[in-house]
């Protein structure tokens, strides 16, 4: 399938007093048209920074130091500030983890969504923008949209606020919506509703979604293809079914085992030993080796590449010497 | 409707505050040495005459009796007659007040027009040269004693350069220096508060949302962050205006402006109790009103605390 967004070898570093932090260190991601792609990883693995890099919203002391982000065969990193502003909210939009704080408390939600329209479409009249906002509120399942238009964020529940955020992100019919942990702050029943909503919108409007989460359950539910990130690098990437069926990387395996199961209630919950490494003092070899149960002396010396896995689907890659072969992903 | 109810409630609550302030000032003036009659009559008058005078003016009555009498008249709007000036206190205050208002408005405008933009620019360009310049300028405003700044301005602009008159109260030129002196220190406070408040607000998630919408950085700051950041600033502004309106005691004295502040100073010097009590009550009412305005503005800006 044709790619909508193509990230190759993206590097976003933070220049702090304690040293350079390579938060995103050579990440390559492809997002095909009308697909849902997941990025999974622990807190601080660089998944949010990848998203913020796509939007070019990295704040100082962070900086994108290398790579390409191509949307419709144009490199966004070569865009001017004004060109990039025209992309944000219009062609690529974003929703965030905390619906409680992501909306401005002193303006009505209607006004905030209307604004998203009028920034990019000057020609749209106020009344028309209002109508569009009410329509999108209805589309994202907000009851009594005319009344809710005049509500302030604090008058809405967490689930409704996230619906407003999704509405704001979808109102300009973007080609890509980035969802950074959209359901983490919500309770489980609401989470399921929001995920369903996003999946339906994606189908109806042919928008691609880049879903960032730490929850493999969420990935299994909605994603077509998954990237597993650790310490700024992609560790494994595969079709969702393939990833669950034929887990190759020890880190992915650890994440899978960490999902609590209802059947084995008496056991202690599984956890991956050790801690996420300090990004200013990364180990010399594989970034995961200090925590890996199958690490060999070589893992501490050399860094593995993304090797192709021989499985049912042919787009499964893993960064581990246990699967070393001659077929390596390009850009490595 | 709810707002009116809120205002009425606040006004009712402030009545005991005003009564309490009058009581305290009564008790304080009672323990202050020196009585008005002796001061008025100088020392070469017969002691019997002073006693007689005191008796006549009701100064020998117990404090509580005098307090009750005063309160009874005050409720009717009568704050007594000034000992020294022999004029109705209410009319004295109402004559002085417009002068103080003029000075306050002038000073407040200077403070806002300079303070708020300086705070915004300093926050946006944090740690830049502009930021440091504005912040040291406002630090000066905040930390210079008003009388010193006033004397320095008089020395430079009036005495040396002869651009503006030293003191007095005839043209707008006379108002310039006192307004700058007062405005400078207010501007300093406002600039620092705006800066720190805006910096704090810019860390919020909704600022990121505004950027993600594709808004220009200026629109993010002015359109989204500023309204939130103004909450503490507006409170500060209302309280500052209230305190300016209740008379800039030092500034008015240094520059010879016949406002509330100078009226109060004169009243203290001459132990003119009715006049002093009058100005204190007036000041109290202004401060209470200022706080009320701040609370109302607060709820206008922030829907979360709007009374429902």
What's the number of helices of chain A? 10
Overall pLDDT level of chain B:
86
Major sheet size, sense and barrel closure of chain B: none
Count of distinct strands of chain A: 12
Query: Structural class of the helices, strands and pairings of chain B?
Result: mainly alpha
Mean pLDDT of chain A, rounded to whole units? 89
Give the tally of β-strands of chain B.
Answer: 0
Tally of contiguous helical segments of chain B: 13
Which percent range fits the helix content of chain B? Answer: over 70%
Assess the beta-strand content of chain B as a share of residues: under 5%
Radius of gyration of chain B: 24 Å
Helical content band of chain A: 25-40%
Largest sheet of chain A: 8 strands, mixed
Distance between the termini of chain B: 10 Å
Oligomer: heterodimer
| SSE sequence of chain A, one letter per element | EEEHEEHEHHHHEHEHEEHHEE
Structure overview:
The complex is a heterodimer of chains A (332) and B (308). Chain A is of the alpha/beta class. Chain A has helices at residues 47-55, 81-87, 109-120, 126-139, 145-148, 158-170, 188-205, 216-222, 240-245, 250-257, and strands at residues 3-16, 19-32, 36-40, 62-71, 74-75, 92-95, 176-180, 208-213, 225-230, 233-239, 307-308, 317-318. With 308 residues, chain B is mainly α. Helices cover 78% and strands 0% of the residues of chain B. In chain B, helix 9 crosses helix 10 (217-245), helix 10 runs antiparallel to helix 13 (273-301) and helix 12 (260-269) packs antiparallel against helix 13 (273-301).
